[in-house]
């Protein structure tokens, strides 16, 4: 089940509410990425305290470990990982693609060797739907091929050509139809999202969009971006594609991005975002603040008694200094990853709250101007 209502707009930007089987979420919204059924370095309670309303689970990884027998026994992912709010699962296509060489793609699906134990595996649109049905995720992503921006062949960087992007996009379209049929056969009560491909070519994005819109799915994602393409290309395709997605359905931009990307995405009409950046960068000491990013390992923080971000209300900023975080990072203490993750996720989720409030108040343009000025100030 899915219900999506738009309450306010500002240009292409929209403020909405998305009702799913496990609860209601506010949009625009950021979705923390939980790969092995956990958002690394933070508990479900910590996620709720940071204001997370929906998280991502990973079909591919959970299929391999702990395996469907374990998840099935718990009636799905929610009870297994202790998260009773909505979950979105990606279909596994991207994850297999990012495995690199050990895979073989055909019309039927993708053959590859398990990175866990070397077993020969075969992921198809139907199998991906069967796995996501066992996971019982509220939003199920279609099985697609994430068209790469470039591939390295024999040491040579090859940029994906128009005909290669077309073939890949048309394969994902055929797979979308197979996903829809299997999803119906399984009588899955959740929401199946299509994924727009088409590489860096606007006319292929339009063809993908038209083919997916004909399937009349409950939601649509923009895929094939944030895969190594120049930022200008990402923004060009985003601004071309987002406004063309069905206006009455949720729009999800996959794998994006920096705080600036989130603001540009909302302005272009995107409702949902996921990115590993806040969590992965936290563990690497790359922290986000209102006035710019900082790398806490830098010697300049050794005696700095200020919190990471004086305007942040998260537990890390309320209790600890930059000097202490600098020390924990230098010592490789596990507490560092936890405190840094809490802050970065809080920063991302607060940015979404601020954008929703600006859309509610009709002050989105002023918000964007202030956001950019603040971020340029420097920490
Ligand atoms: C980083 N840039 C980026 N990520 C993309 C994704 C995957 C998004 C998922 O991959 C992980 O992020 C690396 C996250 O962990 C899980 C939980 C698997 O979900 C997130 C995509 N997925 C599909 N199916 N199709 C796409 O065209 C696509 C494009 C992307 N661009
Ligand atoms: Zn903080």
TrEMBL record:
Cofactor note: Binds 1 zinc ion per subunit.
Enzyme class: transferase
Keyword match Transferase: yes
Active-site residues annotated for this sequence: 90 (proton acceptor), 274 (nucleophile)
Positions of substrate binding: 90-94, 144, 197, 224
GO CC terms of this entry: cytosol
Keywords, sorted A to Z: Glycosyltransferase, Metal-binding, Queuosine biosynthesis, Transferase, tRNA processing, Zinc
Family annotation (InterPro entries): ArchSynthase1/Queuine_TRR (IPR050076), TGT (IPR004803), TGT-like_sf (IPR036511), tRNA_ribo_trans-like (IPR002616)
EC number: 2.4.2.29
Cofactor(s) required for function per UniProt: Zn(2+)
Pathway this chain belongs to: tRNA modification; tRNA-queuosine biosynthesis
Pfam families reported in the protein's UniProt record: TGT (PF01702)
An example molecular function term from Gene Ontology annotations: metal ion binding
GO biological process, alphabetically ordered: tRNA queuosine(34) biosynthetic process
Chain positions recorded as Zn(2+) binding sites: 312, 314, 317, 343
Catalyzed chemical reaction(s): 7-aminomethyl-7-carbaguanine + guanosine(34) in tRNA = 7-aminomethyl-7-carbaguanosine(34) in tRNA + guanine
Coiled coil: none
Annotated family: Belongs to the queuine tRNA-ribosyltransferase family.
Subunit structure: Homodimer. Within each dimer, one monomer is responsible for RNA recognition and catalysis, while the other monomer binds to the replacement base PreQ1.
Classification via HAMAP family: Q_tRNA_Tgt
Name this protein carries in UniProt: Queuine tRNA-ribosyltransferase
Organism the protein comes from: Thiomonas bhubaneswarensis
């Amino acid at each position: 089940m899915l219900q999506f209502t738009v309450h306010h707009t500002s240009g292409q930007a929209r403020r909405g509410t998305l009702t799913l089987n496990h609860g209601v979420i506010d949009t625009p919204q950021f979705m923390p990425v939980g790969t092995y059924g956990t958002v690394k370095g933070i508990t479900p309670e910590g996620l709720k305290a940071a204001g997370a309303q929906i998280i991502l689970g990973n079909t591919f990884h959970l299929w391999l470990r702990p395996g469907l027998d374990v998840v099935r026994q718990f009636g799905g992912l929610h009870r297994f990982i202790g998260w009773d709010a909505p979950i979105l699962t990606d279909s596994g296509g991207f994850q297999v693609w990012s495995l690199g060489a050990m895979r073989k793609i055909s019309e039927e699906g993708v053959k590859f060797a398990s990175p866990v134990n070397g077993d020969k595996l075969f992921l198809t649109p139907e199998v991906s739907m069967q796995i996501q049905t066992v996971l019982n995720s509220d939003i199920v992503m279609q099985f697609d091929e994430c068209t790469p921006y470039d591939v390295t062949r024999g040491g040579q960087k090859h940029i994906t050509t128009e005909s290669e992007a077309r073939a890949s996009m048309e394969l994902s379209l055929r797979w979308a139809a197979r996903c829809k049929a299997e999803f119906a056969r399984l009588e899955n009560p959740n929401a199946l999202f299509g994924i727009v491909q088409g590489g860096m070519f606007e006319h292929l994005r339009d063809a993908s969009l038209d083919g997916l819109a004909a399937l009349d799915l409950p939601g649509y994602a923009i895929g094939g971006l944030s895969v190594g393409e120049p930022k200008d290309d990402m923004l060009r395709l985003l601004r071309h594609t987002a406004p063309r997605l069905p206006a009455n359905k949720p729009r999800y931009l996959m794998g994006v991005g920096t705080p600036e990307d989130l603001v540009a995405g909302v302005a272009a009409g995107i409702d949902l975002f996921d990115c590993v950046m806040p969590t992965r960068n936290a563990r690497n000491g790359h922290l986000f603040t209102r006035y710019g990013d900082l790398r806490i390992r830098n010697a300049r923080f050794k005696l700095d008694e200020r919190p990471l971000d004086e305007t942040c209300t998260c537990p890390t900023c309320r209790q600890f200094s930059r000097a202490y975080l600098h020390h924990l990072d230098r010592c490789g203490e596990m507490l560092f990853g936890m405190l840094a993750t809490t802050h970065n996720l809080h920063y991302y989720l607060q940015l979404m709250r601020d954008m929703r409030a600006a859309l509610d108040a009709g002050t989105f343009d002023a918000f964007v101007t202030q956001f950019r000025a603040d971020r340029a100030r420097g920490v």
